Hints:
Layout: H1 12-31, H2 38-62, H3 70-86, H4 94-121, H5 129-147, E1 154-159, E2 163-168, H6 169-193, H7 207-210
Antiparallel strand pairs: 1-2
Helix pairs in contact: 1-2, 1-6, 2-3, 2-4, 3-4, 4-5, 5-6
Amino acid sequence: MATSSSARAFDVRHLQLARALFAAIAAVMVTFSSDHSAAVGLAVFSGFALATALVFALSAWLVFPRGERATAILLAVVSAVAGMAASVPSWRETGFFFGIVISWAFVSGLIEVIAAVRDRRAGRTAAAPRDGLLIGILTLVLGVALIITNPQFSLGYAIEGAGSFTLTGIVIAVGLFGGYAAVVAVFLAIAGFSPRRPEPIPAAPTEEAVS
């Protein structure tokens, strides 16, 4: 007999909170790092993507029923591929940061948006289509923001008493990823802790129905 969603030990709330946790870790690492180079940005993105892939892979079997696992599996594969590619030390250059993060943002963002629209039309509430739609849009916005950021941008400036600094395209790009991770962490944490409407529990079969 298949286990109903109401009897599952894990639900969408746990998926949201797990994603929020790893997004928050990525945001903190970017925020409190004085080095926003491609190497550091790709290291943080790699950890974030691989952790997110693991969360989706586990949720495919622990959270979603058999007929609703495709989206979680696709997102797990996309994030795992991006995370493993970003983990290669010899590839950690500015151009690769832009390429891999933009590709991941557009592919995973589109998957979440399409899945959310499909689930909403199908009347599914367990998959939280509204939350998935917003996260998908935010991920697409990250991709667009990185596309319009010039990797070759460089602006020198000085702060009295602190010294001279250079604002580059990769510094902006890593900062954008950190900001994206922070927004996603806050939104998913709020969604995960928000009260839910109790799902209707199927009535037990009567003696007449059993007979």
